[in-house]
Amino acid sequence: MDKENEISHIKNRPLERIFQNNISRILDFFIFNQNFNFSTTEISELGDIPLRTVQRILPQLVEKEIIKEIKINKRNKTYELNKNSELVEILDKYSIVTINSFIKDTLIEEKNKNIINLNRIVDDFT
Predict the structure, then answer these.
(1) If you ran DSSP here, which 8-state letter would residue 19 be given?
(2) Which phi and psi angles does 48 have, rounded to 5°?
């Protein structure tokens, strides 16, 4: 991944933008996908997080009741965001506000670019 894509990739993850670690990346993943449950392999592949890292971090998040573990059978488990957690509710609200702010800033940036481009066109005709 080149540096520019890496930077924009982080900008789109509200918690990772601040904490810049794998725990925040996993939390962002679950907040963005809160209506689904995932295996560790799916979290790793879809979240672009090393599998061993996911396997190391998930038990901590389950213990803190941020993530719920769902046992399918003896060997297979999936994980989902614990929507009943007060902390998850706060993290979710923070993420929404941060994304809305990012969108607003991007729209303002685009509007300013369009104004500059229009000014150049007008200058070219005068």
Answers:
(1) H
(2) 55, 50
Distances (CA, A) of 47 to 40, 72, 97: 10, 22, 21
Q: What sign does the CA torsion over 100, 89, 12, 80 have?
A: negative
Map out the domains of the chain as residue ranges. 3-125
Contacts of 85-93 with CB under 8 Å at 24 or more apart are 88/31, 91/15, 91/27, 91/31, 91/66, 92/31, 92/34
Q: What average pLDDT values come out for the chain (126 residues) when binned by 10 residues?
A: 39 67 90 93 94 96 96 90 94 85 78 69 64
Strands (E), the chain: 67-71, 77-81
User: What are 93's two structure tokens?
Assistant: 């609200």
CB atoms closer than 10 angstroms to residue 27? 26
- Candidates 9, 16, 21, 15; CA nearest to 93 is 15
pTM (predicted TM-score) = 0.68
- Fold type of domain 3-125: Arc Repressor Mutant, subunit A (1.10.10)
